[in-house]
Amino acid sequence: MNTLPVDEDQLVTLAAALRAVRARAGTPSLAEMSLRCGVCVASLSDAHGGRKLPTWRTVEGYLRACGVDPGTLRPSWERLRLAQRTEQADARHAAVLKRWASTREITPPRWVRDEAELAQLLDHMRRLCGLSLRDLASRRPGFSHHTYGAVLRGERPVTADMLAAVLHACGIPPTSARRWYLALLRIRPEETPRARGLVPDLSADASTPA
What we know:
Layout: H1 10-24, H2 30-37, H3 41-47, H4 56-65, H5 74-88, H6 91-103, H7 115-128, H8 133-139, H9 145-152, H10 160-169, H11 174-187, H12 192-198
């Protein structure tokens, strides 16, 4: 393993914790760990590199491969993930992320009125749930990870089917999902027939939080 960065930040602390877990497990090879958890060697190596935040799937796999309950590091990972997302977001999006983290109700704000912002919020949701683009494609294989990436970057339109796929992959419950569909229909009313096909009782008078 390479030497950790000298910065004393949460990312390095998480990487050090993963290294300690691996050491206590007898320092299995990354190839062996990959076979145990199904996460590729490169992702496992990046996880304890201390230079970028790994997805939760990677952290969970790393810990399970070392025989450790993933729940022990979940709170630390969630705090780091939220801190990074709010630092990178503008003030309005940062406030939404904090609301999502505190209430666990992941719904779109009332002020979303254009497709670029909707796509950005969906990407915030994806990252907040700890999912990579490949995770989305694995959980909802109707689209490739390249397609998910293009939509969440705002390069392709958000359709009702794409919205359904992202919501499903992120485990958003029906009551919260309806508010995402209503946000989509305010922006792209041409998606109404397909959205109503996916959510038959979808009504235009439901409210969304500010």
